[in-house]
Amino acid sequence: MVLSLFVLISWITISAFFLIPKSLLKVENIIAFFCLSMLVINLYTIPDLDFKLIQHSFKLELFICYLIQRNIIVPVILIISMNLIFLKLSIMKKIIIAIATLKILCSIELLSIWTGIKTYTGWNGYLTIIALTTLIILSIIISKCIIKIRSFTSDYHL
Length: 158
Known about the structure:
By secondary structure, the chain is mainly α. It is 79% helix and 4% strand. Helix 1 (2-19) runs parallel beside helix 3 and helix 2 (26-50) packs antiparallel against helix 5.
């Protein structure tokens, strides 16, 4: 049941990505996805495997849900957020998008805790909020770098 829920969430997330207006080009979205995937995998691995602050489930179904959350849901939500933030919107709307992204990511994190996908052994909710906020800020920095690279390459026609 939990696996079907996380597959549904990932399907909705991917569908939302294809439906939103995009401020980044296809190649830029792919590069951003790979960069964010590396960040997210590190963000989930360091507290889990290195410091033993978070323990993921060893049941196969729940571990697959953990991988779906880590490798699909979180990076795609961040890509959606990046594309929306870099549209020509007011600063207030951009802040609202960032806060909504944080709330969605925290909700998915809570869902993974409630369903037993992971348990906090030395971690807490405040550290999750700090880590996810840092991840959102890093995704904005990555997208700004990608946009600067685009403008640099278009100026010099490489």
